[in-house]
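Friendly challenge for the regulars: who can give me the structure tokens for this chain first? No prize, just bragging rights.
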Amino acid sequence: MFPLAFVPAHELMADAERGNYAVGAFNVNNMEILQAIVAAAKEERSPVILQASQGAIKYAGINYITALARVAASEVDVPVALHLDHGPSFEQAMECIRHGFSSVMYDGSHLPLEENIAITRQVVEAAHAVGVSVEGEIGRLVGIEDNIQVSELEGALTDPDEAKKFVEETGIDMVAVAIGSRHGFYKGEPKLDFDRLEAIRERVNVPIVLHGGSGIPESHIRRAIELGVRKINIDTELRDVFVRTARGIMDEKPDEIDPRKILGPAREQMKEKVKEKMRLFGSSGRA
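First reply, four minutes later:
Bragging rights claimed.
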């Protein structure tokens, strides 16, 4: 059991590296979503990373997110990490650490490289002093609403040599890279740059993080894991199955006013989707 604290994400990454699998990082927004993710981890005997995004922190509040996650982690005997996703500042990373997060991401990918390095290194120095893991990002992940040209997309992707410099000069535990994945659902077939990923893998000595994992074909996910991806972020697919299930019940039973009878089945369907991802990532049975 891990009732007192969350497990640092770098410990989960070390196990994933040795076993050549990836750990799923799933975004949490409310109690039912959190319960679905942790129940899936328990049933699959899988390590898991719970992620709090900026939207989740704004919606639920950091105190609620932390308290709910702590209760959930205390009720299962699999390792659970609590991670800040796309932290915009040093100050927010420190706030999350004070609230008990075991892992934080500072996202300075929109900044010039040297500035990204400088701030990320500050986060690393403070976080490592208290045993907290740090994820950094280099390269820019586009969103589904973005309309960019091929030349612009190339400019947003991670440069392997810059990734090497970034990792070496910051001391991060995990590096998020841009290889063609995006936030949200894809319009058409996603095109991941595996040659770029392989070049990054050859240059960096830390686990690689794949953001925007929803909707990527299973064969692409397996190939990414073969090339060193150890953390895969999933959010959109989970929200989709949750909302579609809840909407279906409300359409079928318009007079239903018991939220438990609407959100309960949605929670169950989300759990099944998380279990599916854990099996795909190879983390099932690794706890």
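The chain has one domain: 9-281. Residues 9-281 form a domain with the TIM Barrel fold (CATH 3.20.20.70). Your move, everyone else.
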